[in-house]
Amino acid sequence: MVEIVIIPLLKIVIVLVAVLAGVAYLVLLERKVIAWVQVRLGPMRVGPHGILQPVADGLKLFLKEDITPARADRWVYTAAPIISLVPALIVFAVIPFGRDVHLFGLTVSLYVADINVGLLYIVSVASIGVYGLILAGYSSNSKYPLLSSLRASAQLISYEVAVTMTLVSVILLAGTLSMVGIVEAQREAGIWFFFAQPLAFAIYLIGGLAETNRSPFDLPEAEQELVGGFHTEYSGMRFAFFFLAEYANMIVISGVAATLFFGGWLPPFPNVAALSFLGFVPGWIWFLLKVLFFLYVFLWIRATLPRYRYDQLMRLGWKVLIPLAIANVILTGVATVWL
Amino acid sequence: MAEALAFYSLAAFILGFAVLVITARNTVHSVLFLVVNFLFVAALYVVLHAEFLAVIQVLVYAGGIVVLYLFVVMLVNLKRPPEAHQDPRRRSRLGLVVSGIVLAQLVAIAAFSATQAAGGPAPVEASVPVAGNVELVGWQLYTTYLVPFEVASMLLLAAMIGAIILAKREL
């Protein structure tokens, strides 16, 4: 009884709280990192070195007036932020944070669920998240959001294809769709799949940037082009939901990259016996370090690269990434059969 | 017992949302009810222990096909169906006739299948050397159903080429 109900519930609560807190502090981290890249300091006033800035931001968004545009589609307008946020959060059910820990005589696995189609679950839930964007733009009954949401959703569904193809090549190597199974396959193979599939990783990273509407693919929400993009007419907590969803998606992409390409909770060089002292560091700390590294890469790219124009963005997705991803799948398939 | 409960409640939701699809006034609402319908069908697949199909249902149907439906509906912004006849009584008479024919067909199918012996084709697990959802589907697709699989991909390719030709202004 305890194992079936209480422990998963506790895991869910812990994961959700950790993700939401992580998202709030990720916003602060982004402002700090971009500031340091631009030789300034970022938020410094609220708390020591701006540590309490997310609290201030959250309070501000909570207390703001909730505006609904006239003649907006009420139900869809209310539902759109929820449809954006819920898929971003429920994906964390299948991301494995570590192997097993032994607490109070129980063996607790550090993931909420290990379903046998875990990777496909992630992709399918991400494709539901697109609806939040489309419906937000449509229901706002306003020009800029509609245009932006059409662009954003077209961008998302285009890059979904390339990202799914790279995941297929990883599945070919691992032989299983389960996330825990993929990490175990990396442990048995003795190398991280990043070394076996560098092209897939590169395509996945670029596609992941486009999937989360991050720079340099953030035209749909760029202030200079489209006022606010699809969330122009949203204020207060609903706007906060869209933001939470975007940053949670960033953490998801980083988590999936860490699990699929960088060995999840495995220490570096898991097959080299001389480095087995690295095993003393718990798996989930390795996972956290890898996710933080990827998040830093996301922020670094934002601080560095200029934005893609929309037609360049679509050209890149369809004419460059998708053929490369398919070629990678073919090569991987051939290599798996012959080697 | 739990399976029957799950099945009937899911079926009630599926049918309810299907009715909402055809009775909603706003076309976008209609498409959204269709999405929810598909999500409940995916839940039905999970109850039937076909998790791979469930996820593919969400990924392809709810997350791909209906998104494109939504694009078209939002851009075209229909107020009422273009070919609807002006006279409402004639419309409802025609609707009653067509739905009566479909109902008769469904009753005939149900009666026919009730008189058949129980049990359809043999379960697949006995004859193939792999186990697990994804492996079974893959095995069947590439051995027993290989020709339909390839023909379906040709069909999709033809549809894609047709769409490109229709949409491009100059080739």
Round the mean pLDDT of chain A to the nearest integer and report it: 88
Oligomer: heterodimer
Q: How many DSSP helices of chain B?
A: 6
The most extensive interface between chains reads: A-B, 25 and 22 residues
Helical fraction of chain B equals over 70%
- Give me the side-by-side strand order of the main sheet of chain A: 1-2
* Major β-sheet profile of chain A: 2 strands, antiparallel
Please indicate the percent range of residues of chain B in DSSP E strands (runs of 2 or more): under 5%
Bin the strand percentage of chain A: under 5%
Q: Which word captures the global form of chain B?
A: globular
The name of the CATH topology of the largest domain in chain B is Four Helix Bundle (Hemerythrin (Met), subunit A)
Which consecutive residue ranges of chain A, at least 5 long each, have pLDDT under 50?
Answer: none
What is the N-to-C succession of helices and strands of chain A? HHHEEHHHHHHHHH
Poorly predicted regions of chain B are none
Fold and architecture overview:
The complex is a heterodimer of chains A (339) and B (171). The mean pLDDT of chain A is 88. Chain A is globular. Chain A is an all-alpha fold and 339 residues long. Chain A has one domain (68-338). Chain A is built from twelve helices and two strands, in the order αααββααααααααα. Chain B contains six helices and no strands. Chain B has helices at residues 2-23, 27-47, 51-76, 88-115, 133-142, 146-167. The N and C termini of chain B lie far apart (60 Å). The A-B interface holds A 73, 75-76, 115-117, 120-121, 123-128, 130-131, 134-135, 138, 146, 150, 153-154, 157, 177 and B 26, 28-29, 32, 35, 51-52, 55-56, 58-59, 62-64, 67, 70-71, 74-75, 132-134.
